[in-house]
Amino acid sequence: MITGGTGGGGSPGDGVGGSAGTSPGDDSPYAREVISFEPGEGAGFGEGDLPDVVLGPPDGRGELSGSLDVLSLGKGGSIVLGFGENAIVDSEGGDFVVFENAFWPGGDPALVFAEPGEVSVSADGSEWHTFACDAEGDGMGRFEGCAGWTPALEYDPNASVPLDPARTGGDAFDLADVGLASARFVRVTDVSNAGSAPSAGFDLDAVGVVHVE
Fold this sequence. Notes:
This protein has one helix at 165-168; strands spanning 33-38, 71-72, 78-82, 88-89, 96-99, 117-122, 129-130, 171-173, 182-183, 185-190, 203-204, 206-209. By secondary structure, the chain is an all-beta fold. The longest helix has 4 residues, at 165-168.
């Protein structure tokens, strides 16, 4: 559980139980606080840099390379992020984007290095709505409904507001798919059960809001 302060230096739950530092500015479309972190088996990479490592824009490296500016959740690990006074609102297309460090070995998207994560959203931090996630994939590099399979691209975060998933990369989610008009919290849970310590599981880089209120 992260309950206060900002992240120091270092290497790379169902309820809402507190908040951490709020590094991004008030007009930032990215997560501003870590509400809770429940590490799974093999977690550890990036924990010394909490909360800042998962706040603000992603450190996208493109389709051929994954970022090391991430937090490894561990096998079955889970994190909840908040957006301060902002709310994600449902509009046309994807409403928010989850960034991981997926990449395409040899430039082939069918061979994507992916560690899928299940994504849930909540308006109040108590009642959660979960996106259907195909954690097994289709054998062609697609893990529909999951986070963690679309590379985060290099882009200028100051010039990319509002976010355009086609420009930023990452996995976009539409609140309409879970029947919500708005949400204030995003939870990501590792469902890959992959890797070894200290970098097992889903590697979270950032969460950004496309449609914000």
